[in-house]
Design goal:
This protein has 335 residues and is an alpha+beta fold. It has two domains: 32 residues; 292 residues, Deoxyribonuclease I, Chain A. It is built from eight helices and 14 strands. The strands form three sheets. Strands 3-4-2-1-14-11 form a six-stranded mixed sheet, with helices on one face. The protein is globular and about 60 Å long. The termini are far apart.
Length: 335
């Protein structure tokens, strides 16, 4: 009887600890997560009301995509890595950068402060869902309009350990005004991760269809467009082929960049050529062990994150990629 009594007490104690967590998850699912703070109405945007004149001269741009793995519980050494990433981006001197997994607002401010001496004076994010979608676009030129499409297809809320649904993933558009008065339509996205879950592949396939529809509905007919991000799929896969075919995307990279890709969208009147692509990697000294997870940590991993020894850490668990591209006015035929 005593053993039985102790078991009952332990079960009641565990229930009292878990109940607030379960209630919090349900409230977040019902109240917080559906919210999207970013602008989502693109029915009367600048692409319709005031399209810019076509480019008259060739233009060279340096474009980066970089998943920086900045999220609570899943990654370590965040402030140190954000400062080092800011210093590296300043050195690379790109024109436009698409960042993914910039989830923590405090760390985002650290990154932006580290970019204070760079040309990347303009930025935008796309607030959505409980933890935010982590998309951050940086630009050397003014961002004159933004709009966000939150993927309607996502994995279910009860897969809390995976995190994708809670992040409100999608694609953010930034219209960027160049010194010439011309514009660039720049799309930054993060798609559903695989996570050894077959259902997630089906979700991502539908997301790639949503991406194509969003690009086609929002891009400016007289403006070159680029789509970058963490697609969580690779060349030749049906989901990525769906996006490429649907939005007429062509790779703007000169190397195999895996799941992190830079695309140009075919635009009548222009040709886009990737001149060079370099991977972006680096490391810095962290205040704790280098840990990058794509799921919630185990108790042992959490203890190591909190109390482990400091050491050298990579900047991210993803390499970034920078492509130098040339945009040339040209007659383009799709026949």
């Amino acid at each position: 009887m005593k053993i039985h009594h102790r078991i009952v007490i332990i079960c009641c104690a565990l229930a009292s600890l878990l109940l607030p967590l379960v209630i919090s998850i349900i409230l977040a699912a019902l109240i917080l997560n559906p919210h999207t703070g970013a602008a989502t109405d693109y029915t009367s945007g600048l692409h319709l009301t005031s399209p810019p004149p076509p480019m008259g001269h060739p233009l060279s741009l340096r474009i980066i995509t970089f998943n920086i793995a900045d999220g609570y519980l899943f990654t370590n050494n965040r402030p140190e890595r954000m400062r080092a990433i800011g210093a590296l981006l300043t050195k690379l001197d790109p024109d436009i950068v698409g960042i993914q997994e910039s989830f923590v607002e405090k760390d985002r401010r650290i990154l932006l402060d580290a970019l204070s001496k760079s040309r990347l004076r303009y930025h935008t994010d796309y607030p959505a869902a409980t933890v935010g979608n982590g998309l951050l676009t940086l630009s050397a030129y003014p961002i004159v309009e933004t709009v966000f499409h939150r993927f309607q297809s996502n994995n279910p809320w009860y897969k809390v350990h995976q995190g994708d649904w809670w992040a409100g993933k999608g694609v953010g558009l930034a219209r960027i005004r160049l010194p010439s008065g011309n514009r660039i339509d720049f799309y930054n996205l993060h798609a559903q991760a695989e996570r050894n879950d077959e259902a997630n592949s089906k979700v991502r396939y539908r997301q790639m269809g949503e991406l194509a529809m969003f690009v086609n509905a929002t891009r400016t007919a007289t403006t070159p467009a680029f789509v970058v991000g963490d697609f969580n799929t690779t060349m030749g896969q049906p989901d990525l082929q769906r996006a490429m075919k649907g939005a007429r995307l062509i790779p703007a990279v000169k190397m195999d960049s895996g799941i992190d890709v830079i695309f140009a969208a075919k635009t009548p009147g222009y040709s886009v050529t990737a001149v060079d692509t370099i991977p972006i990697r680096g490391e810095t000294t962290g205040s704790s062990p280098a840990i990058f997870l794509s799921r919630a940590p185990t108790p042992a991993e959490l203890m190591r994150m909190l109390f482990g020894s400091r050491g050298v850490t990579p900047l991210s668990d993803h390499p970034g990629f920078m492509s130098t591209v040339t945009i040339s006015p040209a007659s383009v035929s799709y026949n």
